[in-house]
Design a protein that fits this description.
mainly alpha; hpI Integrase, Chain A; Tyrosine recombinase XerC; Tyrosine_recombinase_XerCD; cell cycle; Tyrosine_recombinase_XerC/XerD; cell division
Length: about 300
């Protein structure tokens, strides 16, 4: 069973995520599953039927402290096991799938964390551009906000993907899905300044746009640390993370009247429902649109 798990994890890494974090999450879920199966005297994934799997779900529902696992946790684990059994069915030839017709528990969608425009401006305008590393950081975070990029997308960005004359970047996102995202005029001069003042002086044998002081491509962890360090330095007094810039990008576009399908395209979402989590974040905008559109909103009611 362990050999099949390792083969599956290699498949996931090379064909889909290329993310060590994702692979490790899958590994934990599958190891937990194997431990349960062994406790039941089962040593082959082919011997797992629906009843065995339902017993396993009941087992992981109750945590060690007696509390119940969240629906979101169970749903995530089910996603792992579905992917695993699909791999066993298609590539290993195991015919049965104990997850057939098994539905994931309903989960409530968490409202994404985002920053207000004033907070974004404070964050971006407080860099000392006389310091090359701070110029790099401002360029990096400005581009993330300008284009709604994931941190994995910003660290993998190459110079051939940056089109200054036409003001867009070419992004290859999740599932190798390609998208074109424009950026505003002000970033053109910043790009040029960054390349001359920082990149050309430190980059070593790489065409990645964002590099460390040692000239190597930046890591996602480094970007996360730099963002929190700067937020702390300017006294924002809050925990921040790079994905906040992507959430802010989507929220602010929708607040200013952008069509949700355009925002979907810019974010690279396959499903419109994924983009719709941003549409209910601004009650003031909803009220404004309601009062503008409802036929009786401005009608005086006689008493």
């Amino acid at each position: 069973m362990n050999e099949l798990i390792e083969r599956f994890l290699q498949y996931v890494y090379h064909q889909h995520s290329q993310s060590d974090k994702t692979v490790e999450a899958y590994r934990r879920d599958l190891n937990q599953f194997v431990e349960f199966l062994k406790s039941q005297g089962i040593t082959d994934f082919e011997d797992v039927d629906r009843l065995v799997f339902l017993d396993y779900l009941s087992h992981i529902r109750t945590l060690s402290d007696g509390s119940m696992a969240k629906n979101s946790t169970i749903a995530r684990k089910l996603s792992t096991y579905r992917s695993f059994y699909k791999y066993l069915n298609e590539y290993i030839g195991i015919p049965n799938n104990p997850l057939n017709s098994l539905h994931s528990p309903k989960t409530s969608r968490k409202i994404p964390d985002f920053l207000f425009v004033s907070e974004i401006q404070t964050f971006l305008e407080s860099y000392d551009l006389q310091k090359p590393a701070e110029l790099r950081d401002k360029m990096l975070f400005s581009l993330m906000y300008a284009c709604g990029l994931r941190v994995s997308e910003i660290v993998s960005l190459q110079w051939e993907d940056v089109h200054l004359d036409d003001r867009f970047v070419r992004i290859v996102g999740k599932g190798d899905k390609e998208r074109i995202v424009p950026f505003y005029q002000g970033l053109c001069s910043m790009f040029q300044s960054y390349r001359l003042s920082y990149w050309e002086k430190v980059a070593k044998q790489t065409n990645h746009v964002f590099v460390s002081l040692r000239g190597k491509p930046m890591t996602t962890r480094a970007v996360q640390m730099l963002m929190q360090k700067h937020a702390d330095a300017i006294g924002m007094g809050m925990n921040v993370h790079p994905h906040m810039l992507r959430h802010s990008f989507a929220t602010h576009l929708l607040d200013n009247g952008a069509d949700i399908r355009i925002v979907q395209e810019l974010l690279g979402h396959s499903s419109l429902s994924t983009t719709q989590i941003y549409t209910h974040l601004s009650p003031q905008k909803l009220l404004k649109e309601y009062e503008r559109s409802h036929p009786l909103a401005n009608h005086r009611i006689k008493s």
